[in-house]
Amino acid sequence: MHITFVKKILANGELCKKCREVSDRLDSEGLIELINHIAIADERDAESEGMRLAKQYQVERAPFFLVDQSGTIEAFDVYFKFKKFIRDNTVGTIEPVAI
Question: Does 96 fall in a domain?
Fold first, then answer.
């Protein structure tokens, strides 16, 4: 499983509030260790990696997660859905995640 976490940088150069909150949750819940790659969707650069991924996977909200399981990629733009998916699909590989 390969997980990409996409965060958004606002036009003023700051990380979006929701992105900061989700980053903090990933850290406090021990899930940050599962993230293989962090991409930035920079509102000032339509060609930034995160902006291209958002367009490619038709995701309109940040932050979001792309989970690649053997070539099948699923996008999650709601943290709790991502967390539930991880809990349901990583049994025995990480500590149980409280939802």
Answer: no
Helix (H) or strand (E) holding 72: strand 72-76
Whether residue 87 is predicted with pLDDT greater than 80 in this model: the reply is yes
Given a contact cutoff of 8 angstroms between Cβ atoms, the answer to whether 6 and 39 are in contact is yes
CA distance 20 to 15: 7
Q: Which amino acid type is present at position 82?
A: F
Structure tokens at 43: 């509102």
Predicted confidence (pLDDT) at residue 91 exceeds the cutoff of 80: no
Peptide bond between residue 63 and the one before it cis (omega within 30 degrees of 0): yes
Q: CATH number of the domain at 17, please.
A: 3.40.30.10
